[in-house]
Amino acid sequence: MPTPLDNALKSRNAFLAFSGLVTGVALWAIWGGDMFPAEADPRGDPSTWPREEMRRWLASRNLHPAETDSREELLERIRANLRIPRQ
Fold it and tell me: Out of 4, 60, 67, 83, which residue is the most buried by the measure of CB atoms under 10 Å away?
């Protein structure tokens, strides 16, 4: 006498849907979240950073650097928003 589980497994569509769900959960568990992690913040004196690193530093803090900002303007905004190091 077939059980309800046997009847459900006879349906190929239900089996494939369940297999896809298990595969998706497994992939998310393995690769979930930081598959492509963000680059680390630049270190050292901000005046030595390239312009793109300055823009990335400001953008990661939601300070919205403009494309037309000069290097000096970016450096001024970075220095104004740097945290004071604790000793």
Answer: 60
Tokens representing residue 6 in the block: 């046997």
Q: Are 77 and 63 in contact (CB under 8 A)?
A: yes
Residue 58 CA to residue 15 CA, distance in Å, equals 49
**Structure tokens, 69:** 């900002």
CB 42 within 8 A of CB 60: no
CA 70 – CA 78 distance, rounded (Å): 12
Angstrom distance (rounded) from CA 74 to CA 35: 30
Look up the pTM and report it. 0.56
Q: Report d(CA 65, CA 84) in Å as an integer.
A: 22
Nearest-5° angle of CA 39, CA 45, CA 50? 55
